[in-house]
Q: What sequence folds into this?
């Protein structure tokens, strides 16, 4: 398992906050890391819907993995 320190994605924190205004502040670091790395998020949390990247709920991920 990799652990990413905040300094790795700190440059994307404000951008992530902008997408998540009025939503769960605890989601900001994950959103910032995903934006920085250019990777999708696996989550059933609807707070991530406004992000300019893919968000996969568990049901969609299971469908993709099963095909």
A:
């Amino acid at each position: 398992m990799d652990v990413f320190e905040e300094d790795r994605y700190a440059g994307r924190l404000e951008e992530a906050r902008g997408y998540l205004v009025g939503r769960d502040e605890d989601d900001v670091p994950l959103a910032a890391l995903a934006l920085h790395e250019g990777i999708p998020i696996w989550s059933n949390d609807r707070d991530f819907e406004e992000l300019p990247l893919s968000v996969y709920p568990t049901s969609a991920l299971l469908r993709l993995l099963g095909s």
In short: Helices lie at 6-9, 13-19, 28-37, 58-66. The chain has one domain: 6-66. The chain has four helices and two strands. The two ends are 26 Å apart (CA to CA).
